[in-house]
Amino acid sequence: MELLNAIILLLNYTIIPALTYGSQLALGAIFVTLIYGVLRFANFATGDMMSFGTMFAVLLTYYFQSIGVGLGILPTALITLPFAIIAMIFYMLFIDRFVFRYYRVNKSAPVQLAMVSVGVMFVTQAIIRIIIGPFDRRFLDGEKFILKASEFKEMTGLNEGLTIKSTQAITVVITIILVSILFWFLNKTKTGTSMRAYSDNEDLALLSGIDPKKVVMLTWIIAGFLATIGGVLYGLDKSYKPFVYFNNMLPIFAAAIVGGIGNPFGAFLGGYVIAFAEIFITYAYKKFFTYLLPESLAPDTLVQLLSTDYKFAVSFSILVIVLLFRPSGIFEGKKI
Amino acid sequence: MKNYLNVITAYSIMLFLIIMVGIFQSWSIALSILNYCLISAVMTMGANIQWGYAGLINFGIMGYTALGGLAVVLVSVAPVPEAWSVGGTNMLISLFLIIAIVFSIKFILKKYKNNKYRNYLISLVIIFGIILIRVVASQGIEAIESVNPAKTGFLGGLGMPVLFSWLVGGLFAAGLAFVIGKIALGLRADYLAIATLLIAEIVVSIIKHEDWLARGVKNVIGLKRPVPYEIDLQTSSWFINMIEKLNQGKLNLINSVTEKRDVLNQLVIDASSVYVKLCMTGFFLTVVIMLLFVTQKALYSPWGRKMRAIRDNEAAAGAMGKNIVKEHLLIFILGSAIVGIAGAMMVTNDGLFTPGSYRPMRYTFVIWVMVIVGGTGNNFGAILGGFVVWFLWVEAAPIALFLINFFTTHLDDANSLKVHLIESAPYFRFLMIGVGLLVIMRYRPKGLIPEKINVK
Prior knowledge:
The complex is a heterodimer of chains A (336) and B (456). With 336 residues, chain A is an all-alpha fold.
């Protein structure tokens, strides 16, 4: 019984939140890694592009709510996703056409493209703040919980409750579906293979008749999907605030590099590595040990490795360690 | 002279703009813009040394700025004796423990070169050390933070003159740069950018959350200044006499004695703030000119030539026997130290240390925009970039407001679009900076004042 309580406690406070957060990071990290693999630059506008897509979803959600369209128990934001994705893809293609393409055609150094992406970051951030403002917004509607702590306690008779928020379930399910489709596409279809070929060796790919324009366009389209869905899922789970999205860029980068930049599967796992590390290291295990150990041994401190203030610092430290010992990432990088 | 024509024109335009602000808004605002321009110029010089001279990309500017600010607190604030007596020993033991850990890791690295358990041993030392430090420090931290938490709650500083802290800020930043350089300099350019960005974030989060060190997000206010205080000036007779003399003509027009005194009072209050800011400008200008002199000399010295050679062709420079790793580390440290000095100057100028305000947007990316816009590899360009971008950053909101009003004159005042746009006027600064950066990168990739290599 005590053991079950301890497991449920961990599940409720660490594993489920980490899975959710990890999925959100993973989508962003795949986005970063795809851009890096195919277009060969570190995109510093990542967080703001995710924020841009989410902004459309938020505005459309408000609109749909006002005309009374909804999904019942599911959040309205899910209907708005396709529209937001289309808007996002148009924005990305527009930016690529007028900003990034020039440098790609001129074969500029990756650093220069990264600096250009900083410019895009400023502009995107400005547009977002001018349109929707810098405020914190919640746009979740429908059923909030799948399983409430009190219900769980009644059902099982345990001391510890297990809460599953609907956003957590939606996040994990959508991530699994999206990522499986993406990997199927990259590995099994001809277009996906041509993308991988282009990222592996550009010249050879051009020789074998792959159209670079098509590959680049496809990359931005996939990026539009990933950025918007990742952003909306994060916004549903927590809340939508432009500044937070900008900050999320940092753990996303950490996840992409930890997983080996340029390697989508690595980025996917990297998201979970970062999320689990952040939550496990900053969780206070006092209650957990109180359940497991006999009363005389029960700890009187919080049994916390690092205070939650250092949540971000944990992921960055992992990144630094990985860069020191395996600069190409845990899973071999620079391939897609 | 002809070579410098574009530099002189650019700087004259900048000066003219600041004077315009002085005439149309107020001299106090113009001087505070000028002061911040000078501080930004120091930061861009630091970043320019790294990026322009050596091609090293450093997105960690925020971290060095924050460390420079921390130096001001640690050097100039008076010590808190009670805090030292309750928790000082614990903190000193912790410091000793950290040093011991570092040295034992160094020892392990040296002694067990080819041992496969080496990494495990190192991680064991680190984990054990962290646990030990937490046990020792937590009591001390608790005791220190409970000493008059509303006002102090930290160890305080050394109580030394504040100007000295600018030097210490540089040293702190140099120390951090040494560590980061050792870790990250071998990485490729874009990895280095990301790594430095994240390490800076770690540094700031430590400063934010270690309350015993510098009160964390509770801020330290009322820092010392190297210049007199406005209040003291307003009561000192020589200052009042000076203002009276300067405004003789204006005052003579007023007949009534009480009215005359009121006008004089107002003049003295305005003038005191201008005088204080002017003194600050003097200090900052000295630093900028000194740094400019040194960096210009360095740029045209054999050392500067070597750095350019390494930047333009690393492999060739390596083949000629230049030690690239060492030179990169050196220039990384030098540039960061300059940024640290700028951080200390900024906190001194503000008179308060607010760790919560250190954000990558303002302290890393805007500084980078300054370097790119001004001209990489050219010190005059970098300084100009600092001036132009900071000026835009401050004046963007008034300009945007003016433009919005101009283009929406035909709309009703209560029109929701107009109201919305006016409310979001402050955010147009991001738009201006971003578009400016994109345009410069596209049409003038070398910046406003490009690098000129004419070896004398």
